Amino acid sequence: WYNYNINEEDFNYMCDTFPGMNFIIVPLRIDALFPNSLEGDYSTINQSYLDALDNWVSWCKSRKVMLCFSNHCWGQGIDGQNDPYPDDLFTNPERLTGIKEFFKFLAKRYINESILIGFDVVNEVMYQFPNLTVSEWKDFQESKTGCTNYCILR
To answer: Are the C-beta atoms of 30 and 74 separated by less than 8 Å?
Structure first.
């Protein structure tokens, strides 16, 4: 999703074009931050991608634009294709570990950034899984990610 070659000039152009903009969602990919996630390696970081995320935080602070990082798709790698949410997202332990490690890393890194107002753990999950019950979603949020503070809009 997110092309991390966007630069500050692009960001400023967007802010100048939409002067009332005060919120932005930046779609992220787990495999873009952790390039070796297929092997279960969450210690190898793609520094270019991380620098790009740091830039988003910095740019948003300078323009007073609130920021939400969204796990918008799993990305390339796990299935060899751009698969927004694989069918086994809620049952595959490796995928659940990937989600946990991804957001633990981001939460620790940006804990003191007040401009970052949220993390979207799994974007539009009800759309991707129309038969998922609210109870199953709560179970996923609480037991799989440790998240107990969420809002479900259906």
So the answer is: yes
Token pair of 47 as six digits: 């520094």
Would you tell me the crossing angle of helices 8-17 and 47-63 to the nearest 10 degrees?
Answer: 40
If you ran DSSP here, which 8-state letter would residue 22 be given? -
CB 89 within 8 A of CB 141: no
Give me the amino acid identity at 154.
R
> Is the separation of the CB atoms in 110 and 100 below 8 Å?
no
43-80 tens-digit pLDDT: 999 999 999 999 999 999 999 999 988 776 655 444 44
Strands 23-29 and 66-73: parallel
Q: Provide the β-strand partners of residue 148.
A: none
Q: Do the beta carbons of residue 71 and residue 121 sit within 8 Å?
A: yes
Amino acid present at 7? N
Distance CA 21, CA 87 (A): 35
SS3 of 98, please? helix
Q: Rounded to whole angstroms, how far apart are CA atoms 121 and 32?
A: 16
